[in-house]
């Protein structure tokens, strides 16, 4: 994919980063999706889990890296062929974790509704919901540029 | 796969562990999960090299029935695909292919 630069509103994104960081902390020791294993051997399961965890943490770090000191100067994040796959997976992991930790009491239809507004959810989960939606938008932009035929 | 860390399953299968009788043909099954459908379509295309129409058909099947058999073949490759799909945060399992 060609390099894509996205300009974001720093003051709007800053509070979302707090939620992202909390979810990222959870993901240091928890897989976003419960893993299934092809073997029952304990050593095999441990290796399988550790490899998934290492990959997950690498992807989440790539996403957190977008919001560095430079971001707080110009509000821009840059996506290219070198980081797009990590960012897609990082967004997926964080969205799943946010949904699991903060949004589990919301109706599934609301979470799946791409046009749902923050005003549709209870006040105490609006920030996580906004973060969930924000990550969804980043994922969608990457998918559109990665392969237009795949995007809706 | 174009990704450096999303293509191979862990290699730490202990040599001393007795292996049960195994089917020669295994099914790779994707189960329902919270990911967006267009994301899941992209993952199936990238990991399994599917055409778009086929990937969409599988994702719709997962959405409607909760599961879809996305690939069949030897166990080693099924494990590698399962691992790659889990790295993309799709829920995948492998099962021996029942015949007859």
Please specify the SSE layout and strand pairing.
The complex is a heterodimer of chains A (152) and B (100).
Chain A: E1 4-7, H1 10-27, H2 42-64, H3 71-74, E2 76-79, H4 84-102, H5 108-112, H6 126-146
Antiparallel strand pairs in A: 1-2
Helix pairs in contact in A: 1-2, 1-4, 1-6, 2-4, 4-6
Chain B: E1 26-31, H1 37-48, H2 52-65, E2 67-73, H3 75-87, E3 91-96
Antiparallel strand pairs in B: 1-2, 1-3
Helix pairs in contact in B: 1-2
Describe this structure in words.
The complex is a heterodimer of chains A (152) and B (100). Chain A has 152 residues and is mainly alpha-helical. Chain A has one domain (4-146). Chain A is built from six helices and two strands; from the N terminus they run E-H-H-H-E-H-H-H. Chain A starts with a strand and ends in a 6-residue tail after the last helix. With 100 residues, chain B is α+β, with helices and mostly antiparallel strands. Chain B has a domain at 34-96. Chain B has a three-stranded antiparallel beta sheet with strand order 2-1-3. In chain B, helix 1 packs across helix 2 (52-65). Chain B is globular. Mean pLDDT of chain B is 84; it is low at 1-6 and 14-18. Chain A binds chain B through residues 32-36, 38-39, 41, 43-44, 47-48, 50-52, 55-56, 58, 85, 88-89, 92-93, 95-96, 99, 111, 114, 136, 139-140, 143, 146-147, 149-152, and chain B through 2-3, 5-6, 9-14, 17, 33-39, 41-42, 45, 52, 75, 78-79, 82-83, 86-94.
């Amino acid at each position: 994919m060609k390099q894509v630069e996205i300009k974001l509103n720093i003051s709007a994104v800053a509070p979302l980063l707090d939620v992202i960081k909390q979810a990222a902390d959870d993901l240091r020791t928890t897989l976003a999706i419960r893993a299934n294993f092809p073997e029952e051997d304990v050593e095999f399961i441990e290796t399988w889990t550790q490899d998934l965890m290492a990959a997950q943490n690498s992807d989440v770090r790539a996403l957190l890296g977008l919001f560095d000191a430079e971001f707080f100067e110009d509000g821009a994040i840059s996506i290219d062929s070198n980081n797009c796959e990590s960012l897609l997976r990082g967004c997926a992991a964080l969205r799943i974790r946010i949904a699991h930790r903060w949004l589990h009491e919301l109706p599934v239809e609301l979470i799946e509704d791409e046009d749902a507004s923050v005003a549709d959810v209870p006040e105490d989960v609006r920030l996580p919901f906004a973060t969930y939606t924000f990550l969804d938008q980043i994922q969608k932009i990457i998918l559109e540029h990665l392969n237009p035929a795949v995007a809706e | 796969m174009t990704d450096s860390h999303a293509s191979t399953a862990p290699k730490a299968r202990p040599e001393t562990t007795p292996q049960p009788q195994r089917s020669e043909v295994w099914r790779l099954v994707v189960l329902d999960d919270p990911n967006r459908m267009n994301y899941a379509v992209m993952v199936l295309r990238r990991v399994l090299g599917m055409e778009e129409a086929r990937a969409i058909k599988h994702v719709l099947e997962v959405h409607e029935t909760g599961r879809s058999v996305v690939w069949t073949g030897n166990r080693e490759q099924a494990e590698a695909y399962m691992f790659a799909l889990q790295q993309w945060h799709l829920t995948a399992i492998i099962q021996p292919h029942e015949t007859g």
